[in-house]
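At this stage, I wrote out one protein, both as residues and as discrete backbone shape codes, and that material follows here.
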Amino acid sequence: QVQLVESGGGLVQAGGSLRLSCAASGRTFSNYIMNWYRQAPGKEREFVAFISMSGGMNKYADSVKGRFTISRDNAKNTVYLQMNSLKPEDTAIYYCNTGSAWGQGTRVTVSS
């Protein structure tokens, strides 16, 4: 089972940027597709972004398309989520995921 640990969350003003990281351990990282999800207060967890094993393919939720970029460094066993032009509605706990494995999440708060 792969273990996932997110970091990089924090408080930022609207229009600002943050970069989230998710470090993986336990198995061969390059064998796993990776996802980012988020869960806002009082809402269900929702998909944010996907990246293929090689990093050559990705997919985004419509709500973040053009503002967020997912990437990975297989040599560092890490997946990233660069978040630009942040909006208050991006406030949530962000989780990385592969298969049944989830990290503990990192909190992002965007103030207006």
Notes: The CA atoms of residues 23 and 50 lie 16 Å apart.
